[in-house]
Specification:
- The protein has 2 domains: about 50 residues, no CATH class; about 70 residues, AhpD-like.
- The longest helix has 19 residues.
- The chain is built from 7 helices and no strands.
- The protein has about 130 residues and is an all-alpha fold.
- The protein is about 80% helix and about 0% strand.
- Helix 1 crosses helix 3 and helix 4 crosses helix 7.
Length: about 130
């Protein structure tokens, strides 16, 4: 891939990444990167966000729904919290998030589901989408 193509992917990915995850989060991640970790920032921005997320084959809402299920399966709670925010931004409802996590719980196990429900609930309360317990 040429340097120009990579730069185009980075710019496209940066736009999508900021729209889904929020500019503050993305800009902070980039600002905290050093020479070593900037390689990862480029890879994720170019290929995850510029190549995959910017493709026409699936809507962002669907991609968010898939991410919630996969992150539950992987037990990646911090990343799940981030993508719950992104899912809300992409039009996934609280009820849809609940159903996604319930589906994932059945296939991934109760401990994975419990962690996912706790993490999602925490974020949804912070966003004002659920009442505080």
């Amino acid at each position: 891939m040429s340097e120009t193509e990579l730069k185009q992917l980075f710019e496209a990915g940066l736009k999508v990444r900021r729209e889904v995850l929020g500019a503050d989060y993305v800009d902070s991640s980039l600002a905290k990167a050093n020479d070593f970790t900037m390689t990862f920032q480029h890879a994720t921005t170019e290929f995850c966000w510029g190549y995959v997320w910017d493709r026409p084959g699936l809507e962002r809402k669907t991609r968010s729904m898939l991410n919630l299920a996969m992150l539950t399966a992987l037990g990646r709670t911090p990343e799940l919290k981030l993508h719950v925010r992104g899912a809300i931004t992409n039009g996934v409802s609280v009820d849809e998030i609940k159903e996604i996590l319930l589906q994932a719980t059945i296939y991934c196990g109760i401990p994975a589901g419990l962690d996912a429900f706790k993490a999602a609930s925490e974020v949804l309360v912070e966003l004002g989408k659920l009442p505080k317990a």
